[in-house]
Every structure is written in C-alpha cells, then in structure tokens.
Amino acid sequence: MPPLEIPREKWIGRVNEVTLGGNGRREIKIGGESTLPFLHFDGSIPNRPVVAIEVQDREPLDWPPHLVSAWGEALRHPQTWAKKAVEFGADIIVLRLRSAHPEEGDTGASEARESVDRVLSAVDLPIIVLGPEVTEKDNEVLVAAAEVARGQRIGLGNCVEKNYRTIAASCMANGHIAIASTPIEINIAKQLNILLCDIGLKPDTIIMDPTTGALGYGIEYTCSVMERLRLAALGGESMTAMPMLSDVGNEVWRQKEARFTEGVPPSWGDHLERSIIWEEMTATTLLGAGADIVVLRHPRSVEIVKGTIEKLMVRV
Amino acid sequence: MALTGIEIYKNYLPKTNCRECGFPTCLAFAIKLAQREVDPSLCPYLSEEARQALEAQARPPIRLITIGSERPIEVGGEVVMFRHEKTFYHQPGIMVRIRDTEPPETVLGIIDQVANYSVERVGLELGLDGFAIENTSGDSTTFIRCIELARSKTDMPLVIMSNNPTAMNKALEVASQGRPLIYAATRDNLDDMVGLSLNYHCPLAVYGPGGLEGLSELVERATGAGVEDIVLDPGARGFAESLTTLTQLRRLALKRNLLGYPIITFPGEGSETIEEEALLAGQQVARYAGIIVLDHFSPALVYPLLTLRLNIYTDPQRPIQMTPGLYTIGSPRQDSPLCVTTNFSLTYFSIAGELESSGFPSWLLVCDTEGLSVLTSWAAGKFDAEKIVKMLKEFSVSSSISHRSLIIPGHVAVLRGELEEELPDWRIMVGPREAVDIGGYLKRNWRGDLS
Which end of chain B, N or C, is more open, meaning fewer C-beta atoms within 10 Å of its C-beta? Predict the structure, then answer.
C-alpha cells in the first residue's frame, strides 16, 4: 500500500522573538516559533514556553491558607519572595504592584521604585512589572518602575488602549518590553499592537496578554482567541505575531474552586488537590492554545507545569 | 476530501437554478452542502455519481460511533481542527478502567463511586460515562465474573479489554447486548476480533502502535471484512506523542478522508502521577480524543476535567446562556447588595467571580438578553429599563431583599434616569464599567445600614 502522507501545514509566518533581561540581568528569549504549540513536525520552536512566578509588593491577605503556607514568611517582602521563586524554578519574576491600587493602599511612584529596586537587586532573572490595572495608577507606578530598571529590558504592563502612549514612551525611553493587554477579542488585540507600532515601538518589544479566563470561567473564549491570534500570525499577519502571556494564577486563585476550603459540595474533592490542579490545568490548556509565558502562584503548579512543558518539547 | 462549494456546484449540480431544493440558486445550495448543513437528496436531479460523491461529502469526516445501549454515548462526528471554525460536536466519553485482578469489593466500590459521581456547573449535571474492564488476570473466568459484576451494578457503557479472542468471545456472550466497545484488534488477533465485532454487532477498537501506516493497514483489513464502527488506538501514550499523533489523525481525517474514526486514549499509561494523568486527559479533551480511559478516580481531579470538557465543547456560535433569575453569590442576607446584569455566560462568570472574591455576599439579577453581553444587548434594545423592571417583578426580587437599591453596570449608566422614573421608591446606583472593579466599588459605596 502507498505510504501514508501526513498533511503538513506550510506556515509563512513566525511568532516574533522577544528578549527579556540583559545588561547584566539574565536573558531569556520568548516566542520565535513557526508552528502551532508543540507541533514540532510542522516547524520549529526555538524557545520553550516559560513559567513566571508572581510576586506581590505587599503580603497578600486574601490567599487561601495552603497557598500562603507554601511560601511562608517569604510573602512578607517582595525581595525574599522573589528569591524563593528562583529556588522554586521561576524562569521570570512577575512583580505585581498591587498596593498601588486605590483600594489596596494607593501607594505611588516612590513605593513602586523601592519595590522594583528590591526585586531587581535580589534576583538576576528577567522581570515583568504589572500595575494594579487602574489606568492612572498604572501610569504612575510603571513609569517609575521603567526608570529604576532602565536598560534591563523588563516587561511593563498593563499597557491598554487607554494608556498605551505613556507605557510605550516609557518602554522606548528605557529599553523595556510592553505587555499589551486587551479584553478577549482578536481584533482589539491586533488594533493595540498596530497603535503601539505606529507610535514607534518595535514589534519585537511587545508581548500580548489577550486576557485569561480560568478553567470554568471563560477558558474556552481565551483558548479560541489565542488559537486564532496564533493561526493569523503563522498565516503571515504580522500584527498578531507577538508572543502571548497568560496571567493564570491571578485568575485561578480568585475563583471559589481554588479558594474555598469548606462549604462546597463533596463532589469537588480535596481542596488542596483541586486548587492546585485548577491552576495547572488552566496553564497547560492555555499553553496548548499558544501561551508563551504562563504566570503562576503555587510552587507545585510551577514544578508540574514546567515538567509538562519539558515533555511536550520532546520531538517525537 | 472536503469539497468546496464551487467544486460541488461545478462538478455535481445541474446548474438549472430550479429552486426545488428550497434554495434560490444551485450555487447557494452548493455552499450549504459544502458546510454540511443540508442533505444532498434535496436535489431531485443528481446523477448517480454525483449522489454518491455528495453523500460521501455530507458524512462527517470522522465517523460517529455509538457505545453502550441503555445509556449510550456518541463519539466522533467531528468536522474541524479548531472549535472556532465551527464547534466540537461530541464530547469525549470519560471512563474509568477496572482490572479484573481487583477483589470484587474493590470493583463494586469503584463502580459505586464513579456511577454516582455528579457535579453541578452552570445548571448542568456533569458526570463520567462508563467503565473499561480489562482482562489483566489473563483468565477468562475471572474476566467474565468481573464483567457480570459490573453489569449487575451499572448500565453505563463498557469497554471490554482483552487481546485474547477466546476470552473476548465469552465476554461478549454475556455483555454484547450492552453494545460494549471491543478492545482491541491487534496485528496478532485481527481476524478473530473482526469476526467477533461482526457477530455481536459491537464496535471494534484497533490497536496499532508504532506509526500510522501500520494502524492504517489494520483498519483497512477490518473495514475490508465489513466492520464499520471502528475506534483507533495509535498507541501514542505520553504528552508529546499524544498531541502529535492525535493532531495528525485529525488532519488525515479532515484533509485526506483517511482514518476518520474516533480515538481512544489511556492517559494513565503516559504519565507518572495521577495529577499528570488528569493533565494529559485535559490535553486530550482539547486535542482530539473520542474516549478517554482513566486509571484513577479522584473527585478533585475529575471535577476540573469535566469542567474543561464542558468548556471546550461549548458551541462558540451559541455560547451557554445563563437561565434568567435571581442568583445568590455567597450567602446574601436581606440587606446585601443587589446587582443586575445580562445572561451572556461570560458576563455572568466575570461578575459572579468578582462578587465572589469581593467579600460581599450579593444578589445578582440575571436578565434575559438572549445571551448578549451588556453593551451589545443594550445596543440591540434587549437590556433596557423596561426589561430590568420586568425581571425585578418576575423574580419577586423585592421579597428577597429589605432595601431598595439596585446597582446597574457602568456601561448602561444611561438607563439610570428611566429606571428612577419607573421605580420611584428605588435608589439606582451606577456600578463600575468593568466587572473587575466591583469589589472596590462595593467597598466605597455599599453600606448596608444606609441602603
């Protein structure tokens, strides 16, 4: 019988390769793939997807007990937290300046500068700094963060439609990467990339965050938007060819499946086991849809998700 | 191979635009045929050759297979690589393997747990689909006893696993009315297993590890002998093998019309821990499995897996709508906040999730907006003051709460004036535009004693 010919995709596009870090800080390359996630037989995947660990600038008071105990005292200071994250295998540290949120402390530029500086001094991994997702405050603290980290090519987010000029200018002036965040919709994601490039940001200094829905909370929308963005990129549409970040931990650990230890149906099973796999399965599903960076919270999720990426990077 | 509308029009239709099919032109009909939305028999003027070609085209490139008889499941029937291209139609059956070496009380225990497992999500009851009983002992009497034990406890679909045709024959003697899946025909036993599949009218799994060519050859032998209902096991067990092989099989089916059958997977054989087994099963839910046989049952791992299956197999063209009504978030009291929103599932999940984590137990009035989001439904005239007033009445909201304050989404602040007119004794509060800000908003604005 004739040999079975496996249909192969002949993609003409490639995901942009973005470098985080440098200037003394460890470098990591994100993206660069010319095939769908882990389909090595259609193209190349020069850089494996990576796992970032989230660190907050203040001790989080709303985390479930076992997530807190997994980190212990380290949660009290961003620099000790970041060091521990390195031990737990982080590829990148995501510093969330949560205390800048008007409801969470309303701290400003000087506090942001201090937190960023502490984390930068404590670890040599690449850093992404995220603001509190309130536009004016984001501008204030991200501009401060950009200055402190000048030349160290950190990621800065959220860069959204409302504040993209400020963040882009700050990235250009200080040599950083914009984390362009849009609500789960392919055209809006593309539009923000166009706006950013129009005012002078190079395409390979942009990472997209197309908004994460956790497992059970809209993950199917995120999957489809990521798949469509990636298919468009491989099809040659350059304004969707930015690598993608998924803020998984932040979405998962706010849901009741991850947070609630009691008062839930017995069919939900053991809380510890359930909450961790909720984070892991959200992450692995989105990696399968095209995420290049997943941001996680629980050390065990980090270990398991990294292990899964290793396995999927083996060419079979 | 899938035909385009133009190809169908050019090569097979009469091009007379007679309209007898119900479409204005032959081309319009051709396009519907290409999308597999209509039956070719609607055209009375097809040649025999055209009829055959179009019927082949109309069949889903992956055969739909039924397993079980009392509570059957259908797997396969898929037509796309990605859910946004249309939808994934038939969610994979998720089963649990039982080895006949387990003591009867253990077997009964597992069956009891799995068969009775049920978890509720968005108003749906989710559960598992059946059992795979394996002749691990190699002894046919033990095998039969285990199958009979299972059948005495459950009418859920079964996969019967043995490479020994004699044991399989005995098993089918007692279990074939349940239309189990025969697992599996291999290079060594294919003819015998094909015979059993035909004799007992049960679907047949074909196991062909070590490359799709070998698998294809075995499948051709089975179909050549007359078996139609086939399930594939390419033997690809680990994360990378499974993703690669299942993707290639889906492509072969869709683009080449080859090996178009559902696939059975055993994630427990490709992983080292039960946590990994669940993650691999999750990958297989998203990437092309038809039946997933788990080696372990643990509610904490099965619940996320069933949730993922529900999510991935949601039709993107018709998102799940929430049933309109008054929902409770946490355990609200009479003086807890009342918010109103639409019944688009993503809108509901966003706002419910944020309320959940806000620390404010709340009432959430979900209006029937035909599944549209806040702005879209407002623009379409399906989410206005009149609708909100109607919903407040319909769900007797006033009797659940002691206050008269209603928080509306920031995006429809414009409704405030009209609502104040329609509801003179109510205070209409304009909430934030984005769900994520509701927690902060409540902290700033909600004082139960003042409301």
Answer: N
Residue B367 distance to chain A (closest CA, Å): 19
**Using one digit for the tens of pLDDT, what is the confidence trace for B136-155?**
999 999 999 999 999 999 99
What domains sit in chain A, N to C, each tagged with a CATH number? Answer: 17-312 (3.20.20.20)
Residues of chain B neighbouring A285 (CB-CB closer than 8 A): 282-283, 286, 308
Which amino acid type is present at position A113?
R
Rounded Cα distance between B436 and B364, Å, is: 15
Give CATH 1.10.15.40 domain extents, chain B.
5-58
Spatial distance between the Cα atoms of B90 and A188, rounded to a whole number of angstroms: 31
- How confident is the prediction for chain B on average, in pLDDT? 93
Predicted pLDDT at B123: 72
Fill in the amino acid letter for A70.
A
Give CATH 3.40.50.11600 domain extents, chain B. 325-445
Would you state the torsion angle of the CA atoms of residues B3, B4, B7, B12, taken in this order, to the nearest 10 degrees? 60
pLDDT at residue B1 in the model? 53
**Residue extent(s) of CATH 3.20.20.20 domains in chain B:** 65-312
According to CATH, the topology of domain B325-445 is: Rossmann fold (3.40.50)
Closest CA to A272 of A292, A300, A251: A300
User: Is B52 in contact with B60 (CB distance < 8 Å)?
Assistant: no
Q: How far apart are CA B65 and CA B185, in angstroms?
A: 17
Measured distance CA(B415)–CA(B428) in Å, rounded? 9
pLDDT at position B39: 87
Q: What is the pLDDT of residue A255?
A: 86
Contacts of B312 in chain A (CB under 8 A): 220, 223
Among A154-158, A220-224, B253-257, B390-394, name the one with the lowest average pLDDT. B253-257
Best mutation target among B80, B81, B84 (most A Cβ atoms within 10 Å) is: B84
- The answer to whether the beta carbons of residues B277 and B268 sit under 8 Å apart is yes
Residue-wise pLDDT tens digits, A211-237: 999 999 889 999 999 999 999 999 999
| A:B CB pairs within 8 Å | 166
CA distance B264 to B185: 13
The class that CATH gives domain B5-58 is mainly alpha
What's the average model confidence in pLDDT over B370-377? 86
Q: Is the ipTM of this complex over 0.90?
A: yes
| A279, A252 Cβ separation under 8 angstroms | yes
Q: What CATH fold (topology level) applies to the domain B65-312?
A: TIM Barrel (3.20.20)
**Residue B449: pLDDT over 60:** no
